[in-house]
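Human: I'm a chemist; would you kindly supply sequence and structure tokens for a protein?

Assistant:
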Amino acid sequence: MLWLLSIVINVGMWLERFVIIVTSLHRDFLPRRGHVRPTFWTVDVHRTIDCFLTLLFLFIRFLPVIAIFEMRTMLPARGCEGVGKDKGWR
């Protein structure tokens, strides 16, 4: 009996999706080509965001972030002069 109830519920859910999709495909909601033109502000905002992201990615590419903790551990291991407690590093 429980198996039959699960089949009926599954068919009902499938019919609900079917009705939603068929009724929404009845009318075309997409605007036609040529009728929608971007405004100046839309283009300007997109250009600003694109320019910012381009500069950010270039900055990340050519000036990578190096953690100070890693530098503190690497420099004394290489025997660099002038690095130590007397120079202000802890």
User: Anything to note?
Assistant: Residues 58 and 64 are 10 Å apart (CA to CA). The longest helix spans residues 2-25.
